[in-house]
Structures are given as C-alpha cells and as structure tokens.
Specification:
The structure is a homodimer. The first copy, chain A, has three domains: about 45 residues, Orthogonal Bundle (434 Repressor (Amino-terminal Domain)), CATH 1.10.260; about 130 residues, Response regulator (Rossmann fold); about 130 residues, 3-Layer(aba) Sandwich (Rossmann fold). In chain A, α5 links the parallel β1 and β2. By secondary structure, chain A is an alpha/beta fold. Helices cover about 45% and strands about 15% of the residues of chain A. Chain A has a six-stranded parallel β-sheet, sandwiched between helices. In chain A, strands 7-6-8-9-10-12 form a six-stranded mixed β-sheet, with helices on both faces. Chain A binds a DNA duplex (30 and 30 nucleotides) through α2 and α4.
Chain lengths: ~325, ~325
Amino acid sequence: MTDRRAVTMDDIARLAKVSKPTVSRALSGSPLVKEDTKNRVLSVAHEQGYAVNRNAQKLRRKRTNTIAVSLDFRSHQQGHISDPFMFDLLAGVSEALGDRNQDLLLCAPNHNDTDAFQKILWSRGSDGFIILGQGHREEMLNEFAATGAPLVVWGAGAESAPYCVVGSDNHLGGRLAGDYLLDKGCQRIVFVGDRSFREIGLRFSGLCSAADERHHDVKIDSIELHNFSYEAAYEAANRYLDVTELRPDGVFAFSDTGAMAFISAFRDAGMDVPGDVSVVGYNDIASAAYFTPPLTTIRQDIHQAGRVLVAKLMRILDGETPSSGVIKTELIARET
Amino acid sequence: MTDRRAVTMDDIARLAKVSKPTVSRALSGSPLVKEDTKNRVLSVAHEQGYAVNRNAQKLRRKRTNTIAVSLDFRSHQQGHISDPFMFDLLAGVSEALGDRNQDLLLCAPNHNDTDAFQKILWSRGSDGFIILGQGHREEMLNEFAATGAPLVVWGAGAESAPYCVVGSDNHLGGRLAGDYLLDKGCQRIVFVGDRSFREIGLRFSGLCSAADERHHDVKIDSIELHNFSYEAAYEAANRYLDVTELRPDGVFAFSDTGAMAFISAFRDAGMDVPGDVSVVGYNDIASAAYFTPPLTTIRQDIHQAGRVLVAKLMRILDGETPSSGVIKTELIARET
DNA sequence: AAAATGTTTGAAATGCATTTCATTTAGGTG
DNA sequence: CACCTAAATGAAATGCATTTCAAACATTTT
C-alpha cells in the first residue's frame, strides 16, 4: 500500500556501510566476504525487509532458476483433464523442484504448437521444461527438442525419441495386467483406451504379448476411446455392451478412472464385478483401494517419478545428456 | 545449444532499420507506431526468433504479470493432498489466468510462514497471490494481508477477514446435506472432518441448524479427523464402528474422498449403503457420479471459482477492494 | 507559402543486481 | 621492517527493455 520506493541493494549497501558488490556477495553466500561483514549485511537486509529483485537477478545472471511445467489441462477440447494421477505427478515435481530451489512456472498452453514453448525459452521465462504427458504432441515435441531446448517428458520412451523421457514400463504394465486376467481364466478380454497415445498403445501390446505367450484361446478386443473423461468411458462401456453378443469377462483400462467408469457401467447393466468380469486399471490412484470393489491396478511409483524428472532435467541444464528413465511398475492385485 | 549471443531488441532495431523504442512499441502494440513500420518490425522479430526478454521487461515495468498460486500440497505433514477437487480448482485458476495473459507461479511453501510469501513479493516474483485453501493458515494470512499484500483466498469468508475470500456457502452446504439426510429419516447422523478448518466447521454448523429447525429427535455426532487421506478416514470409520453401540444411519463427510473412504469401511463392516446408512460428501468430484453406489454430494461450481478468484485479484491489483465472493452451492442427490 | 497541428521516431536516462578487475587491507616471512 | 601473498572490498561496466522528452516529419489551415 505504502507507495514508497522499493528497497534496493544500494540502500542496503549504504546502511551496512559497504559497497553494492559486497551486499550481493553476502546475500548469495559467497565465501569471499568476511563472516563479520556478511552478518551485518544480512541483518540490515532482514530489518529492511529486503529480498533481491529476482528480475534484475535473472536478467544479469541469464539463468532463471525456473522450470516450466506443462500440464495440458484441456487436451482434446474435452474439458479438463482431472485424472488425480496427473495431480500427484505434479505434486511430486513441485516438491522435487522446491528441494532444488527452482521455481515452477505452470503452463497450460492454449495453442499446442512449438511456438508457445519456444517463446518461453526465447523470452527467458524458464531454463527448461518438464512436459507432463506427451499425448498427441509427439511431433511438436520432436520439433521442439530439435531446437536444442532443454526438456524432459513424462510419457513412453521410444528408442528414437530425441528427448529424455521418463515413464513406467508400459509394455510390462500391460503384461502384468494380462497375466493377472489370464490367471483368472478370462477368455474375452477387452482393452479400453486411446491406443494412438504411445503409452497406451504399449499397454495394449503388453496385454497382447501376455496372451500370445500363453497359447491360450483368448479373444482380445479393444475399444478406442478418444476422450479421457468418466462420461466417455461410461458411454463407451454401454455401447459396447449393447453391441456385443458375448460380454467380456476381463477388462484392462488405460487408467483407474476409466476402469471405475467401466465398473460403474457394468454394475448398472446388472453385471457383477469381479464375479462376471475382472477389471484392471492403471496408476493406482489414491481412491483405487477404496473403490467398491477395491480396484486391481498397475502402480507407477509416482513419487520417484517427480524426483527423476527433475534430476534428469537438472543434468541436462548442466550440459549432460542423461538417458531416459524407467519408473518402477508393479501389479497391485485387489478385488477386481 | 548454439551458444551464440541471444538476439536482443537492439538487433531487431538494426535489422528493421528503426530505433529500439520503436521496436519496443511495435512489439507491445502501441498505437504510436505506423502500421507499416510495425509490420516490418514484427516480421523481422519473427524471422529472428525473437521474444522480448521478460526479465528485463519485468524489471523495467515493475509489473510481473505473474500470479503466485499456493497449493499447500503437504498440509499437516501427512503426505500429499491429492483431493481431485484441488486439482480442478487449480485447473480453473490456470485457465482464468491464461485468459488474462498472466503467468502462474506455483508455490508449495515448505515453511508455512508469512516470510515465504513475503519474499516472493519483495523480490518481485509475482504481483499477487491466490491461496488455495486457508486451512490452518488463517493467522498467517491475516498477518500477510495486514502488510497490504494483494491476495485472494479460496476458503470460507469470515466477515472479519482482512482479505478477499472466495468460496462456497459452507453453512448452506451443511444445511442442504442435513436436510437431505433428515428427509431420508436419519436419526443418528455423524459428521466427519476437521472442524477447526473454518470451511468444515461451517458445514458442521449448517448440519446442526438443519437438525435444530426440524425439532426432530436427531442425534448428531462428530468424528474429528485431522488428516485428509483416505487411509485416515477409513481407519476413523472403523474405530467409530468398533466403539459405538448404535451404528449411524447418516454420514456427512467433509469431502467426497472422505465419504468414499467411509462407504468403503461400511461395506467392509458388512453394512449396506444406502440401505443401512446414507452418506453425503462434498465437492462433487468427477468420480462421485461413478462411485458404487453413486455418491450424493454438495457441488461447488468449481469453474466459476477459478474465474472469480482471478477476477477479484485483478481488481485488487487495480487498486480496488472487491468484496468476498460466494460460489454456487447445490445438493446433487444420487444414490447414497 | 507560412503557420499550426498532429503523427512518428529517436537519444538518453532508468530499473536493479552481478561480474570483472583493480585496489586496499591483513597476514606471513626473511 | 621491508616484501610478498592471500583475503576482502569497491568502481565501473554490463544485462535488456521501457519511458520521457525532444526532434523530425507529415498534414491542414489560413
């Protein structure tokens, strides 16, 4: 409210009877300044309510200590993504960045083109990028990475990917789910999800290889679902039940939320889960264990994920080129 | 990668054969520059891959066009908050800020003291604050607001609050839940949640006044729950069932997640929902409608929330002092 | 054609901190 | 005590864009 001029480093210098560079050094913990002087500066700064102007600092240092995190809130113009998994991922990243004193610039670009990201870099809005979910943006990400932009991506690693990817082993996840359903004796398994997403495609192929290996007489069907909402999954389930002669006895969904919507539809259609049909989700979101019935799912170590993403990006910023990272992936067998 | 010197405004000026101020004006859309010149500058800037250095801009303009959003990820050192409601709220805020070309600095302060916030302001890291959830930070927020910091808070408005609060009408929410349970004929209603949170306390008192008004012979009990996780709610439910002679026939939970955990515990204890006990949650998170059974809950208009929070803050930054805002609150009756 | 007005443009000052390099001070040695 | 080295400090240059104020140019008006 008081509109008096902001306190600057010069003021602190004057009050502490030292020069500006000394204040600068004292505040950034340089070993070049005597203990004594440093304390004096620090206490003056504190009593004046002074904090280094970050913008001047960033301008001068050419380093922002800020990481842009992209969350594609509204992919597929289908309203907000609200998979709690993404939230947990964000929380993990936020914490890991906090531990390294990096600021987090949250960006949910409207136009999903390289430019939106490129501009952040050109304008020195951040030092690097953490992209949560590659989705259908692979081409764009390839382009962006080709410019040499420092980025890490949460998603599925293609060997060919020109950027560092961190993610669970989606193929393994699919196998684990497949083995689980096959062990239960499922004959007609249906996969639910948008296979054009690389991660999800891999989960499907994992499921298929599990089936292939068993030489079982298993039918694997797939429902293409280009929308991640509960509504869409619920409706897709109903449509499928309407159309199909033999109802499925096993379902593997691209996510826990999808699995829940399917279970809900099955219940409304008078089917029993897991009596009539077994269901496996993906992610092990917090609510999975408390769903009715408790949901069997593939857990990704989300907490590790945030730390790994940040660690890799920091190495990139230090000029290294870390390999992609794989996050622990395991089946959590519950009632479905 | 190429470590050539960054493109600056001087370069653009030279290439477009104009002066620096003209470039500055052209890029920020000033009407002072001739259409002709402006286009020339714009095209040069584009082909050079130039974007104004935000840090220099912020330094000079003394305005950051950045809003700090605080998300208390790990309140109560109990691990991450992962209520999807918070995620939706964040998504709404993110979108509303995007629409106004404001950047979003996500902060999850470790030390929950004024200083963490104050420092952001002193260092010109953001122009203002959106605090998502007042939780137990009311005192701190009062202090912070007293310094004249521009902030809006998602929470429950006390008349006395020295800052602008936006939130649903929690008392009304409580009444609606109460009326619903009483209409169902519940006799032994238990409230679940940490009443020391103002929002939650109000929901409880709303429930009580609904009961009072009916002159019913209703017993209202309450389970103090100082932890927002599913686990904690599930355990609290079990403890309560162990200890109580007459089992409750109505539950009103502080959130949908809490309600789900309770339903899960009831189910595991062999109780039927809604046969034996009716349950009302709060927030209407996306999964509520697909829970088994579909969850009755109090919906807050989350999308409006984000817009209102941002709009109020912008007015504050313009020197106004907007009143607190109330978000639409309604009962969504489903099966429980 | 000169005067008056309005429109574009540019030179220079400014915002604030960091860094280089030179200088001073303190400490150690013969 | 003179001399050298190491430690601490400071003057000035620098990073990049915005803004003020004055100058140049274009257009009307008399």
